[in-house]
Amino acid sequence: MESENKHTWRTRLHEIIYEADTPAGKLFDVVLLIAILASIILVMLESVSSFDDKYHNLLNIGEWIITVLFTIEYILRIVTVNKPIKYITSFYGIIDLLSTIPKYLSLIFVGTHALVALRALRLIRIFRILKLARYLGASNQLANAIKASRAKISVFLFAVLIASVIFGTIMYMVEGADSGFTNIPKSVYWCIVTMTTVGFGDIAPVTPLGQFIAAVIMIMGYGIIAVPTGIVSAEYTKASGSDKKVSDEEHKHLQTVVLNSQCCINCLAEKHQDDAIYCHKCGCKLHHD
Amino acid sequence: MESENKHTWRTRLHEIIYEADTPAGKLFDVVLLIAILASIILVMLESVSSFDDKYHNLLNIGEWIITVLFTIEYILRIVTVNKPIKYITSFYGIIDLLSTIPKYLSLIFVGTHALVALRALRLIRIFRILKLARYLGASNQLANAIKASRAKISVFLFAVLIASVIFGTIMYMVEGADSGFTNIPKSVYWCIVTMTTVGFGDIAPVTPLGQFIAAVIMIMGYGIIAVPTGIVSAEYTKASGSDKKVSDEEHKHLQTVVLNSQCCINCLAEKHQDDAIYCHKCGCKLHHD
Amino acid sequence: MESENKHTWRTRLHEIIYEADTPAGKLFDVVLLIAILASIILVMLESVSSFDDKYHNLLNIGEWIITVLFTIEYILRIVTVNKPIKYITSFYGIIDLLSTIPKYLSLIFVGTHALVALRALRLIRIFRILKLARYLGASNQLANAIKASRAKISVFLFAVLIASVIFGTIMYMVEGADSGFTNIPKSVYWCIVTMTTVGFGDIAPVTPLGQFIAAVIMIMGYGIIAVPTGIVSAEYTKASGSDKKVSDEEHKHLQTVVLNSQCCINCLAEKHQDDAIYCHKCGCKLHHD
Amino acid sequence: MESENKHTWRTRLHEIIYEADTPAGKLFDVVLLIAILASIILVMLESVSSFDDKYHNLLNIGEWIITVLFTIEYILRIVTVNKPIKYITSFYGIIDLLSTIPKYLSLIFVGTHALVALRALRLIRIFRILKLARYLGASNQLANAIKASRAKISVFLFAVLIASVIFGTIMYMVEGADSGFTNIPKSVYWCIVTMTTVGFGDIAPVTPLGQFIAAVIMIMGYGIIAVPTGIVSAEYTKASGSDKKVSDEEHKHLQTVVLNSQCCINCLAEKHQDDAIYCHKCGCKLHHD
Asked: Do residues A37 and A135 touch, judged by C-beta distance below 8 A?
């Protein structure tokens, strides 16, 4: 009887934390989203020394509140899942842990010499932002287009790298250390800056020959930017043009995933069909309201 | 009889101000267009101190002329419409008011301390330029393509933001305050500057590791610019490729809207069909020449 | 008899100068091309003061040689055409004249005070480069795609301008003269520099709010660059996809135009069919070898 | 008997060096790849003076090891081919030689005055990176799209150059030497920097008129970047859209080329069919395992 009661309690919590189709589940997600954004803003504000000097205590309190919140969330996520090891070793499990521990570690390493390492640890919390990616939702056309053109873009980027190494070396020979091209790695860096049309201007050619070669590099970079664009464009046209109906269905599917996302309490499998009764991975019964 | 005469007078004015299918209506539009452009140029010239010192009185007179013109236009627009509240609370009604009042407010706030606020008020007139958007005309393929790809581009821009926050934090840790990366918000700003291939160069990495990460960011930015381009390109191809005939009809429709734009005197509804006799929104009779 | 002989002489010269399907005509074109490129290089070298100081006389002689060559060409072009007024008032006729006279005018204005004006006159010769456009040849897919998307790109560029004026004014209010945003026109200039992702860095925001707005402008600029690209891409796909066969024929036609370009001696009409005997514009007989 | 034995030995070596379908052949390729990358990194590190000062001897030893390795490879490639002259005069043959000799030449030119020339010679080894291109593999869609649009992109780049020369000259006249536009070649260089949206900022217009023209150039550059992108995009869509099945076959073919790449021992011809017994170029028998 007790066990049954506990099971119900676990099941309800699982629904709230892992799913989003109950009012409580939606509320949980919104609170989590706000907490994530607040923690990112806190990490950012803390790095602004003029702000940190004034409101150090306030920031510290805010961080502790969020750390406690994330700790509770982390523990609940472990407790309400049948296979906790699977969650802990999953991508989001590691992100959840990494974004929670730094504040606790700051209690241990309070020595003067550990301050620099401590600072780096605090910044790990910035990775909490990756949790937001969870809300970007399911697989879509965009991801498919990028996936389909990934191999081709890699070849292209590799070609850009080879060109950068060769032109970087030529610029190093032509311009030399006086113009800021002090060594080949720096020249290659400059070449990438130029070819991608970023153009910081911290290093710039001064000799006529160097400026001529720079002009060639720029026009090349201007011309080859067309290549990855053309690839993604074509892949995306293929992906989206194939079937308009599919796109609509996918959209509907997306809504289903976001609003009625069932997550198996046993194996964490997602993307169950709307009318599914059993998990399609482990056969465990799914819990509806 | 008087009322009938007044009605005719109002109807004729309505035609001139809100429509463009009579010679007087066209003239009104051209005069308004010139007045808008003149007011923008006046605001700009006034901000150039060397110009303002010389021709302050001339600029002041010019501004008063345009302010009076816009005031008359604003009053006439209210008078000739049956439901003035609807116009006043509409987007263009607010723009019309906001671009007229600053000069009058400058008469009230003449104290020495109010000068800064006054300056800001004057600049509000720059929003008059949005009235020009009215002449950009009706909905077209372009707007549809942007509308169709808006959701996907938002997801994409959100991904760019997440990447900027993470890479900005890494650069802050690697480069530190000595290279200009004084805090995380500034580092994130630098990361956006770099990823969008703008590259001001006011902040630039100086350490080899920082330059290596910067190169990775640049090549990433260079690669992902292909994504929104591909999306718009594909959406636009779909939108324009679907039917050439539609495009021609739309073009004809555009001309109709611009040249014979009927605007209901009662409810301000636009885009009536060319041969419409009654307003399709309120049933009020439309006035043709 | 004399007149007949003269006619033959004129006809032969017309063939050499205006057409390219005889060995002499081809040679004339190649010589002209080299002369144009040489004149451009001379104008450029003359502006490099360190080079001009050393080789002033050499440059002067070179310029006179080219000026005489262009003068002869200009006179021959007038003489060998039946309607010289039509040639003189045509686009290339004006370019030919403008690129020839500056050197003669430099003989007239030798006074000390006229030196600055003289310098500007010399530079007019740079427009000779536009003659090269003549060799870019006939209308092609590319030009058609640009032509078809011209109207849409104009609307787009106009929207960019409106956004630049509004954001430029906001940046002027936020940053002020201390950061280099001394007046609105300069701020609008900065905004265009940023939105087009050029990013010189001569002016850059320094306040946190200014940098935040700049980030918004950059991401906007980065997003909207997709729009013209998408338009040209779609129009080009439509233009080139419609018929592959047409493209091949066009290519053949291009060759015909370049190699066998018949140009009517009477009315300067071009693009006659390969087997044409009479001009399709004025009915005048065409001269073949 | 001896000759037969030697033939077998040569044939086996040929398989290892020129092909990649035996375990030994694969190992050879991987070792070569690592050696190439190591040599590039060595050249780069050597140029960093702070690194070279510390580890000069270590770098020197590393270079000698790689030089000896490449020498052995070069000799074996000559020995195992029936027509060595063909290999030596081929593109990769020249690259192989050029990337091997600099270290030997450094033994000859050890005089103090030859140091600068020596440095340049050392850097030639950077071209070894081009050997990596060999592993980028066979012809693919990407290359075909670039090939198909090469002519059109050339016309486009030529148009950009003409525009740069004209606008560069105008900027030289407007801004003059005080703003850094000291001569026309430099102005043209600045114009290319601006038009390609690189924007170093080492030279930037300061006069209002100059900034206005710069804004026009930037918007032009921003608009015309769409042209090459559109071309490649359309060509690529055509190339990849024509047949999905072909793409799959091509992929399979690619694998075949990479994994079972047969290279004729007699004439170096590649791309034999998988089941080919005789070379399709010289009729010489191919050697399978």
From this structure: no
Residue B84 β-bridge partners: none
> Which of D196, D217, D248, D251 is the best mutation test for A, with the most CBs of A within 10 A?
D196
Instruction: Give the distance from residue B42's alpha carbon to the nearest chain D alpha carbon, in angstroms.
Output: 16
Residue B162 contacts residue A132 (beta carbons within 8 Å): yes
Chains A & D: contacts with CB separation below 8 Å: 134
| Contact between residue D211 and residue C200 where contact means Cβ atoms under 8 Å apart | no
The residue with tokens 């020449």 is B289
Cα separation, A231 vs D237, whole angstroms: 8
CA B98 from centre of chain:
14
**Which residues, at least 6 apart from A241, have a Cβ–Cβ distance to it below 8 Å?**
B234, B237, B238
Burial of C198-229, coded b for 16+ CB within 10 Å and e otherwise, reads bbbbbbbbeeeebbbbbbebbbbbbbbbbbbb
Tokens of B201: 């160069």
Nearest in space to D171 (alpha carbons), one of D134, D210, D221: D210
More confident residue, A236 or B260: A236
| A75 touches A259 (CB < 8 A) | no
Rounded to the nearest angstrom, the minimum Cα separation between B192 and chain A is: 11
Owner of token pair 């050696």: D35
- Pairwise CB contact (< 8 Å): A236 & B230: yes
Q: What is the identity of the amino acid at B229?
A: T
Residues C156, A33: Cα–Cα separation, whole Å: 36
Residues 6 or more apart in contact with residue C199 via CB below 8 angstroms: A198, A199, B193, B197, B198, B199, B200, B201, C193, D199, D201
On whether the CB atoms of residues D145 and D236 are closer than 8 A, the answer is yes
Residue ranges of alpha helices (H) inside chain A are 2-18, 23-47, 49-79, 84-88, 91-98, 101-108, 115-123, 129-132, 141-175, 184-195, 208-224, 226-241, 244-260
Contact list in A for residue C199 (CB cut-off 8 A) is 198-199
The D-side interface with C (CB below 8 A) comprises: 152, 155-156, 158-159, 162, 165-166, 169, 172-173, 182-185, 188, 194, 197-201, 204, 208, 211-212, 214-215, 218-219, 221-223, 225-227, 229-231, 233-235, 237-238
Question: Distance between CA B251 and CA B258 in Å, rounded?
Answer: 11
Interface pTM, i.e. ipTM: 0.76
Torsion on CA atoms A233, A239, A241, A243, rounded to nearest 10: -170
- Whether the CB-CB separation of B202 and C204 falls below 8 Å is answered with yes
Contact B230, A229 (CB under 8 A): yes
Q: Could you say which of A185, A199, A214 has the minimum Cβ distance to residue D199?
A: A199
How far is it, in rounded angstroms, from Cα C125 to Cα D166? 10
Buried b (16+ CB within 10 A) or exposed e, C6-40: eeeebebbbbbbbbbbeeebeebbeebeebbebbb
Q: Do C230 and B229 touch (CB under 8 A)?
A: yes
The per-residue pLDDT string of chain D (289 residues; one tens digit each, 9 = 90 and over) reads 455 566 678 888 888 887 767 788 888 878 888 888 888 888 888 888 888 889 989 988 998 998 899 899 899 989 888 888 988 988 778 888 887 888 887 777 665 555 555 566 667 767 666 666 655 543 456 666 667 777 777 777 777 888 888 899 889 988 988 888 998 899 999 999 999 889 998 899 999 999 999 999 998 887 777 777 777 777 777 766 544 434 444 444 433 333 344 555 666 555 544 455 565 556 566 554 4
